[in-house]
Design goal:
Shape: globular
Oligomer: single chain
Strand content: 25-35%
Distance between the termini: 34 Å
CATH superfamily of the largest domain: Bira Bifunctional Protein, Domain 2
Length: 477
Amino acid sequence: MAQDKKLVEAITSMEEDFAQWYTDVVKKAELIEYSSVRGCMILRPNGYAIWENIQKQLDADFKATGVENVYMPMFIPESLLQKEKDHVEGFAPEVAWVTQGGMEPLQERLCVRPTSETLFCDLYANIIHSYRDLPKLYNQWCSVVRWEKTTRPFLRSTEFLWQEGHTAHATAEEAEERTIQMLNVYADFCERVLAIPMIKGRKSDKEKFAGAHATYTIEALMHDGKALQSGTSHNFGDGFARAFDIQYTDKNNTLQYVHQTSWGMSTRIIGAIIMVHGDDSGLVLPPRIAPVQIMIIPINQNKEGVLDKAYELKDRLKAFKVGLDTSDKSPGWKFSEQEVRGIPLRIEIGPKDIEAGQAVIVRRDTREKITAPFEDIEARVSEVLEKMQSDMLDRARAHRDSHTYYAHDMAEFEKTIAEKPGFIKAMWCGSEACENEIKDKTGATSRCMPFEQEHFTDTCVCCGEPAKVMAYWGKAY
RNA sequence: CGAGGCGUGGCUCAGUUUGGCUAGAGCGCUGCGUUAGGGACGCAGAGGUCGCAAGUUCAAAUCUUGUCGCCUCGACCA
């Protein structure tokens, strides 16, 4: 169609170049703007509003489990960062340092937080004395800085927004329970609100967080068949507690170390929304996260009565997040604008509709047109939004499932990864040597050892030794 | 950090090989008017000193050196 031509020119098709498509969508939907600061992006209103909605809903989910919000300093003294050995080694290569305050050099340099475990530990060492002080269930919404070599909007930027929860518990069991609980909060949120199905599982030792005993992850599959780690939950055991001396007196008057967890989700998840749901016309936002759910577009708005009707419609739909585009652009322009921004529904209202006592509802995901009488409009809109939300989850799940393969041996593994991008399930002996070999040969990393295990061969896909576990593998962002 | 590509109005680019008049185009932007069911059209305007610095030259967007930045892929990470 001729009218699609300009859109096609504006956004590179996924098929042609997925990376370019992603960049085009992010820019055309006005989610971000590149800044003058290397590797740092500016979140524009359309992008920030998505983050605000994520924040609002996740924050409520956290609080429902007893979590409280705090705010910690953005600087960490070097001596504090040094306290836990694995942790420093993990983060040292990518921290930014402040070495001067005003005109004076600092006696001890400060890093800009890449994550705040050390600060929370420092706090907990001071405020936890008795079993009565436990558990501590703190979270903070903040930004962190990691000096990454190369950056991409949302997926990897020098500074990014996230939340980090840090908890301290009396027992190892309680800490493990909390770790899994928060992983489930993330996974449920992603499925229910973002319409993104997640694989839940444990990270291999190689992939786990610096300083953690165990790292759990939710993994999603993007449209191009690459995996995205979308949220993590770590069980620290008492490792940090021993390094930072976080001890409490139990009921029997004996000193015990606390057991800790931490868990985080970042603006990276917005990258997942884009890459799971987007299409060649731009962004497609699930209704439950969309900052604007409905855009009313008047047709021939200068004609007597059209705008009045449009305002009336907007008022009737005020239970939803609804906008009305009264700019003097042509209707076709407004349609494209609504589509590229991923607004779930648009309602077309013109002279013909007014005469017929109806409006036309158009779904962003399927472009299905639904004619609804004015009297029914609220009910129809509500119904269509619900349907769209669940259809999007179903489609994402179907895509993931149809791009998930089994590899019984290395030849099959290599062939699959080369020809069919997606998740590969394979049995594994659990050794890091095999993990490394698989990565060298295929470029795929272990994504996780899923909670939902299967057993389909007895031997490791790589070395042929007895298999201990089934893991998901794939190329990742 | 390795490989490759690129910096010229807001955007996409032409001009650079072979230095030469007042640096161009399309889109976008502003004003007025006509239009309106898939990125409308006419007329009139505004806007750049060619990423930055030094050098060569009568003369530099164009040549030389340095420097800064961006993009893609890879390695590393949420």
